[in-house]
Design goal:
- The complex is a heterodimer.
- Chain A is α+β, with helices and mostly antiparallel strands.
- Chain A is built from eleven helices and eight strands.
- In chain A, helix 4 (about 60-85) crosses helix 5 (about 90-95).
- Chain B is mainly alpha-helical.
- The N and C termini of chain B lie far apart (about 70 Å).
- Classes of the chains: A alpha+beta, B mainly alpha.
- Chains A and B meet through helix 1, helix 3 and helix 4 of A and helix 2, helix 3, helix 5, helix 6 and helix 7 of B.
């Protein structure tokens, strides 16, 4: 019974308080709730005294009030100056962005998109402009077509996460992600085997605009380091598979890949015929490789002892990082390891 | 030369406009906030501390702290003044704690001189001074809810937002607070 009446009394009391605060006399408030009048009277009397209590507070002295207003406006000024100083820096402007009106935020987003988009387009154009034809084909082929692409050359420099391959006086920087496999003679090779001077064929397998595998085939281990300035002797034959960058799927090169025991990916039509269209591009190769005891390189199945973090990082790389990145820095011998450049064009 | 008429300060009627202007550090908006709330903050502080000097300090500090903290403030539909009173509450608690630490004055008990001064300016002196004293002896959450609801005239919803409680909880709290106040006054 008590539990039923108590909530009702709370609501009644609240209504009475609202009327008291609004200035209604206590008698009138009680009359409106006669059924609770006995219970309400003492608490409403206390409430009424409280409502009138502020009248007992001294009025703040005008001088103190003016001083407080002055302090407030000075604080506003100081805060404005602080904010403007912060705005002078790009970082400060970015930090302030969430507090800016939406049009500013939209403009900032647009500017960021233009900057990054422009940089990407510029880099692509620069790459295309400095090395016409094959480079663009390579890029477009890897970006928009699910064909295997590859680059051949001599290892110019090597670091933990990238290898610079030189050919025809130009360099290509290839990122080595966790999914990258180094193969020699169709077998997974220890990383130490990949050294400057080695002739390599870097194979990227793209599918659905994403890198699904990277393989670095060491074609001649222990070969003397090739001068990055002097191109290999085969540079005069543009159609030779060992020299040119395959822009599109080339059955000849697929056969060549067989020599290593690792077949490059097949075009989608062939996958359809083999009924493994859901597999990665080199899924068919896996069977062959397994038969030879060779592990293939699939970005989604790293065979190294990767930490979970490394795997995550790898997935990200696989999804977002093209196999080769290019910059427009002309390669000189001093640029070893640093001056990644446009891909070599078949002269 | 004709004197240029002083520009009429814009008045912010809507809460969201006021909040945006405060965030943008527009002096007019801050002046409006001050004009509308200084006395209320002062009264709140005075009733809480029972000391006019403390109330002066708190009322001044609250607005300065509000300016400093406006960068973190985000308008989410509740009145700006609710945020202001939260600062006032914190400042008052700080003053009371400081007072307790130093032992200069007993916590929540108005100084005799202040009480006397308060009585001097209260038209219904005894009764209202007793109320102030009784309020000072209530549990903090009881006192807060009564001050906000009855002295500040805030709605239950506002009080709920201020205290981080549900409206139902505020109704229960104010009922218990009034009963406690009634007992204090009777005692």
């Amino acid at each position: 019974m008590t539990t039923r009446t108590r909530p009702a009394f709370e609501d009644v009391l609240d209504e009475c308080l609202a009327r008291l605060v609004a200035g209604e006399p206590l008698d009138g408030v009680l009359l409106a709730h006669r059924e609770h009048a006995v219970e309400l009277l003492p608490v409403l009397r206390a409430a009424q005294m409280t409502v009138r209590a502020p009248a007992g507070a001294p009025t703040p002295a005008p001088a103190r009030r003016a001083k407080a207003l002055g302090a407030l406006l000075a604080a506003v000024d100081a805060q404005q100056g602080k904010r403007e100083r912060r705005r002078d820096t790009l970082w400060g402007w970015i930090v302030e962005l969430p507090r800016r009106p939406r049009p500013y935020q939209a403009l900032a987003g647009l500017a960021a998109a233009m900057i990054f988009g422009g940089a990407a387009v510029g880099a692509t154009a620069a790459a295309g402009g400095s090395a016409p034809g094959p480079v663009r084909d390579f890029f477009l082929g890897s970006r928009f077509v699910g064909f295997p692409v590859e680059v051949r050359g001599t290892v110019l420099s090597l670091s933990l996460d990238r290898v610079v391959v030189a050919r025809d006086g130009q360099t290509t920087e290839v990122r080595l992600t966790d999914g990258t496999r180094i193969l020699a003679g169709g077998q997974v090779a220890p990383a130490g085997l990949l050294q400057p001077g080695a002739n390599v064929r870097v194979e990227a397998v793209m599918r659905d605009d994403a890198l699904v595998a990277t393989k670095v085939h060491i074609e001649q281990s222990g070969a003397p380091p090739a001068s990055p300035v002097e191109p290999p002797a085969t540079s005069g034959a543009p159609d030779a598979p060992s020299q040119r960058i395959a822009p599109l799927f080339d059955p000849t090169q697929t056969r060549e890949g067989d020599d290593d025991g690792v077949e490059p990916a097949e075009p989608p039509e062939q996958h359809g015929q083999q009924g493994d269209g859901d597999e990665p591009a080199d899924g068919a190769d896996d069977h062959g490789d397994d038969a030879h005891g060779v592990a293939t390189a699939q970005a989604g199945e790293p065979e190294r002892e990767d930490t979970p973090e490394a795997e995550d990082e790898h997935h990200e790389d696989a999804a977002q990082t093209p196999v080769a990145s290019r910059t427009a820095v002309p390669r000189t011998p001093e640029h070893e390891g640093g001056g990644a450049e446009t891909q070599g064009s078949p002269d | 030369m004709l004197a240029q008429p002083a520009p009429v300060a814009r008045r912010y009627e809507r809460e969201d406009e006021l909040a945006a202007a405060l965030s943008a550090l527009e002096p007019g908006a801050w002046r409006q906030l001050f004009e509308e709330n200084y006395e209320r903050v002062y009264n709140y502080a005075f009733i809480r501390t029972g000391n006019a000097a403390d109330a002066d300090d708190i009322a001044s500090t609250v607005f300065v702290e509000a300016v400093k903290g406006i960068g973190r403030y985000q308008y989410r539909g509740s009145p700006v003044v609710a945020w202001l009173f939260r600062i006032a509450h914190n400042e008052t608690v700080d003053v009371l704690k400081r007072r307790q630490r130093t032992g200069a004055q007993p916590l929540d008990a108005p100084a005799i001189s202040d009480r006397l001064r308060a009585r001097d300016v209260i038209s219904h002196a005894d009764e209202r001074a007793d109320v102030a004293e009784a309020l000072g002896r209530l549990r903090p959450e009881h006192r807060d809810v009564l001050l906000l609801r009855l002295v500040e005239g805030r709605s239950v919803r506002d009080v709920a937002e201020l205290l981080g409680k549900t409206e139902g909880a505020v109704k229960v709290l104010q009922m218990r607070a009034l009963r406690a106040l009634k007992d204090r006054l009777a005692g």
